[in-house]
Amino acid sequence: MKQLFFLLFFSLIFVSCSSSEDNNDDMDNMLQGHYSLRINGDGFNDELFIFDRDTIEFGNLGIKHICSDNSSNSLFFAIPSADKDSQYTIVPFASNTTSTSSVILSGNGVYLSEDGNIFIDEIITDGNCFTYKGSLNINYRRQDNKPGTINIQGSFEVPVASICD
Question: What is the pLDDT along the chain (165 residues), one digit of tens a residue?
């Protein structure tokens, strides 16, 4: 009987502390924005991707934009700052470097930036909160150096959650 009690007690603790709650909290903390992206090359023919889970982080690399969808596709880019009516040149990807980008496409692998541009067209302010609106046009190569390049073009409108909390 004592063993059954301990088993039930530890089962209750395990279920109460499961990581699924943590994942839901993370999802609730991300404000919803969107990236609407068209991908061409390496088997993609003007394929539309909508990324609607976004985070923006501020740090040593400047401003990091990270977005994803429910199919494990994701896009990352870092720019030194974000000023209205500004263009940022994307350079070949290198770890811990600003002005670079990477993208993961489920089933196709990881692609790293070669060159391109990111435009911040507008910064919408509402009190202490603000939203970045802009566009991008970036060329990528496969991370594994197999043949295959892609081009991603699109737009984004992303609220900055960390400022509004």
Answer: 333 332 333 332 223 333 333 443 443 444 456 899 999 999 999 999 999 887 788 888 788 888 999 899 999 999 887 777 789 999 999 888 889 999 999 989 999 999 999 999 998 888 877 888 999 999 999 999 889 999 999 999 887 755 555
Q: How far are the Cα atoms of 27, 28, 56, 96 from residue 24, in angstroms, in the given order?
A: 5, 6, 18, 29
Nearest to 132 by CA among 68, 64, 44, 42: 64
Residue 65: which residues within 8 A CB-CB, separation 6 or more?
54, 55, 56, 75, 76, 77, 78, 79, 132, 156, 158
Side chain identity at 28, as an amino acid letter?
A: D
pTM: 0.76
CATH level 2 (architecture), domain 32-164 = Beta Barrel (2.40)
Using DSSP's 3-state secondary structure scheme, residue 164 falls into helix
Would you kindly state where each structural domain of the chain is located, as residue ranges? 1-30, 32-164
